[in-house]
Automatic annotation (TrEMBL):
It comes from Temnothorax curvispinosus. GO terms for biological process: signal transduction. It comes from the Eukaryota. GO terms for cellular component: plasma membrane. It is a multi-pass membrane protein. GO terms for molecular function: odorant binding; olfactory receptor activity. It holds the Pfam family 7tm_6. It is found in: Cell membrane. Its main location: membrane. InterPro entries: 7tm6_olfct_rcpt (IPR004117). PANTHER family: ODORANT RECEPTOR, ODORANT RECEPTOR 19A-RELATED. The chain crosses the membrane at residues 63-86, 127-147, 194-215, 227-248. This is Odorant receptor 4-like.
Length: 326
C-alpha cells in the first residue's frame, strides 16, 4: 500500500511537468482565452451584476474543497516523516535513522541522517507543495473560465427574457447576444484544446489509480491509521478532481442550452429584424449546446465522472476475481 502511494506520488510529479508543458505550448491561446472572457465578463458584469454573480457559489466551493483535500494529502504525506524526526530527537535515539516522506529512488544511496538527509527532505517538501499549488491552479483555472462562460450566457438569457429593461433596441440586443455567443463558442474550443490532453491523462490515471488502491487496500484491516487516512485522502482527491471537471463542463452545457431557449422564446419572430440578424439568430438556435470535449474522445460532463467510477470498479472486481481464482 505504501509503495503504491509512493509510486503514485512520484508519477504525480511527472504529471505536473506535463500540465506545465501543456500551458507553455498553448500559452498564446491561453492568453487569447483569458483576454476574451475577461472583456465579455466585465461588460456583462457592468450590466447585470447580480445575475452574473448568482452562480458563483457553484464554482468557488468545489475549488476550495479541492485545495483543502490537496493540502490534507500533502500534510498526510509529510507529517509522518517529520513526527519520526521529532520523536527520535526528543528520545535522543542513537543512531538516528530518518526516512523521507516519499520513498524515491536516487542514483546514490538515500541518506538517513545528517545534512544530506535534510537537503533531500527540503527538496521533497518543496516538491510536494509545488505539486499542490500546480494541480490546484490548473484545475481551479478551468473552473474560473467555466464560471465566466456560464455567467455570461445566463446574463444574456436574462436580458432576452426582459428586453424592455435594456437601453438598446431589440435588434441591437439580438445582434450583441449572437456575436457574444459566437465568441464564447471559440472560447469553448480553446478550452477543449488546452485542457483536452490534461483531462484525458487525468481520466486514465485516476481510473487506474482508484482501481489499484481499492484492490491493494482491501480489506482495510491490515492498514495502519496513517495509511488509512492517506488512502481516504488520495481517493477523495481523485474522485473530487474528476468530479469538478465534469461538474464545470455540465454547467457550461446547461447555460448554453438555457441561452438557446432564451433566444427561441424571445420576441424575435414578431420584430422587424434585418435579414442578416434574422439569419444569425436562426443559425444560433440550430447550433448544438456548447460542450467541452477532451480530444474528441469524451464529453466533459457528469456522465464522464460516472463512467470513470464505473470503469474503476469494474476493473477492481475483475482483479478481485482473478486473485480469488489463484
Amino acid at each position: 500500500m505504501t509503495d503504491l502511494l509512493s509510486s503514485r506520488e512520484n508519477k504525480t510529479c511527472l504529471a505536473i511537468f506535463f500540465q506545465a508543458a501543456c500551458f507553455l505550448v498553448k500559452r498564446e491561446r491561453l492568453m487569447e482565452l483569458h483576454e476574451t472572457l475577461n472583456d465579455l465578463f466585465e461588460r456583462e458584469l457592468a450590466r447585470r451584476r447580480e445575475t452574473v454573480l448568482a452562480t458563483l457559489y457553484a464554482f468557488d466551493r468545489p475549488s476550495y474543497i479541492l485545495c483543502f483535500v490537496l493540502g490534507s494529502t500533502v500534510l498526510l504525506s509529510i507529517c509522518p516523516a517529520l513526527i519520526s524526526i521529532a520523536r527520535q530527537i526528543v528520545r535522543h535515539a542513537k543512531p538516528r535513522r530518518y526516512r523521507l516522506p516519499v520513498a524515491a529512488k536516487f542514483p546514490w544511496p538515500a541518506p538517513t541522517n545528517g545534512l544530506p538527509y535534510y537537503l533531500h527532505l527540503l527538496h521533497q517538501i518543496s516538491a510536494c507543495w509545488w505539486v499542490m499549488f500546480t494541480i490546484g491552479s490548473v484545475d481551479s483555472l478551468f473552473g474560473y473560465y467555466a464560471f465566466q462562460i456560464s455567467s455570461i450566457l445566463r446574463a444574456m438569457s436574462a436580458r432576452l427574457a426582459n428586453p424592455r429593461q435594456n437601453r438598446e433596441t431589440f435588434t441591437e440586443l439580438l445582434d450583441t447576444c449572437v456575436d457574444t455567443h459566437r465568441r464564447l463558442l471559440r472560447c469553448g474550443h480553446i478550452m477543449s484544446d488546452i485542457w483536452g490532453l490534461i483531462i484525458i491523462r487525468m481520466l486514465f490515471a485516476n481510473a487506474i489509480l482508484m482501481c489499484a488502491l481499492i484492490f491493494e487496500a482491501s480489506p482495510l484491516t491490515h492498514l495502519t491509521i496513517g495509511q488509512f487516512f492517506l488512502f481516504v485522502s488520495f481517493m477523495a482527491l481523485k474522485l473530487l478532481q474528476t468530479f469538478i471537471y465534469a461538474w464545470y463542463g455540465s454547467l457550461i452545457t446547461s447555460a448554453s442550452e438555457h441561452f438557446r431557449e432564451g433566444i427561441y422564446f424571445s420576441e424575435w419572430p414578431d420584430s422587424s429584424l434585418d435579414r442578416d440578424v434574422r439569419v444569425n439568430v436562426i443559425v444560433t438556435m440550430m447550433q448544438k449546446p456548447m460542450i467541452i470535449r477532451a480530444l474528441k474522445l469524451s464529453s466533459v460532463d457528469v456522465r464522464m465522472f460516472t463512467n470513470i467510477v464505473n470503469t474503476a470498479m469494474s476493473y477492481f472486481f475483475l482483479l478481485q476475481s482473478l486473485d480469488e481464482g489463484r
